Amino acid sequence: AGEGWGLATDGETLYLSDGSEHIWEVDPATFRRGRKITVTAAGRPVQFLNELEWIEGKIWANVYTTDQIVIIDPATGTVEGVVDLAGLLPEEEITPATDVLNGIAYDAATRRIFVTGKNWSRLFEIEIVKK
Q: What is the pLDDT of residues 55-64, one digit of tens each?
């Protein structure tokens, strides 16, 4: 029931976003929703969670209509980091048909992270640098 915006797995459980500040744990055998994770940053809900990816024990979620990805502790729902991808897609490639950032993929074997967006002409490999 309801909308599914993003889906990720840790290998045992599915994690589902619905465009709100909630991520649901879902049983992959029955597709029944279990625990609801409320995602917060500095104590405030983070709404519009969209695409999800499981990366090294954390849930990465893009925030719909922004150039940000939040890194979430799945046990608490707390945002532990923000990846700001503003300016990633060059201005000359942005057209009326270009849509939002919403693709996150992780290659665990090589520890490589890839991002893209709807109607983007490119796939980007990104490297996270902590400030």
A: 999 999 999 9
